[in-house]
Automatic annotation (TrEMBL):
Keyword field: Disulfide bond, Signal
Name of the protein described by the UniProt record: UMOD/GP2/OIT3-like D8C domain-containing protein
Domain UMOD/GP2/OIT3-like D8C: 57-149
Keyword set includes Disulfide bond: yes
Domain of life, source organism: Eukaryota
InterPro entries registered for this protein in UniProt: D8C_UMOD/GP2/OIT3-like
Length: 202
């Protein structure tokens, strides 16, 4: 008991409290691993369970901000067996910090059928930041081989552009359609934007 008392006193100091209240949009680590892209079909047996996760992370792909996919990712993508995706919509700026479920796509050993959410790692906290980027409080998934996936930077930027044209968030159906048409989504985006611009002038 005598050894615990000093630790409790340290935890209650103003300095420690200010550390806990830091804005994750400012205080975060950049995670820039190209192999995490959903378009990466090379399975290198990466495993995020072997890493020491601490604090908040901002995802970058080829130097551009990106984020986790909100739709099921095919198995053997993102450099691993079991790709992990965000099962829920990303928060808006006004939402603050939210908690979201993470899913891992893999086979059900009993039915041998693939399930987009067969593995459920611990939920993570997510926050939208000014400047159109997102930060995540990532945690170890507790099993291998699995990794957190990220959208390719080009996909994220194109979707962001579409969001600005439509002046609203994309629905899950639109998100799935957008993802399924990669890499031809650039042409799809241009057609959609042209259509929206025509309607706005009618």
């Amino acid at each position: 008991m005598r050894t615990l008392l000093p630790l409790l006193m340290v935890d209650q100091t103003p300095e420690s409290t200010s550390t806990q209240e830091r804005d994750p949009c400012v205080d975060h680590t950049v995670l820039e691993d190209p192999w995490r892209a959903t378009t990466n079909r090379l399975n290198a047996k990466k495993c995020d369970n072997l890493l020491l996760w601490q604090g908040w992370y901002r995802l970058l792909h080829e130097g551009a901000s990106t984020r986790m996919p909100e739709t099921c990712v095919p198995m053997n993508r993102c450099g691993t067996d079991i790709p992990m995706w965000l099962n829920g919509a990303h928060p808006r700026l006004e939402d603050g910090i939210v908690t979201r479920e993470v899913c891992g796509h893999w086979y059900n050993i009993l039915t041998l059928a693939a399930s987009c959410c067969h593995f459920k790692p611990p939920s993570i906290r997510v926050k939208a930041c000014p400047g159109n980027y997102t930060v995540y409080e990532l945690v170890g998934p507790k099993f291998c081989f699995t990794t957190y996936c990220m959208e390719p930077g080009t996909v994220f930027q194109q979707r962001l552009r579409l969001k600005m044209v439509l002046k609203r968030e994309l629905s899950h159906t639109e998100m799935a359609q957008f993802a399924s048409q990669f890499p031809s989504n650039a042409a799809w985006l241009n057609r959609t934007c042209e259509c929206c611009m025509v309607k706005s002038h009618v």
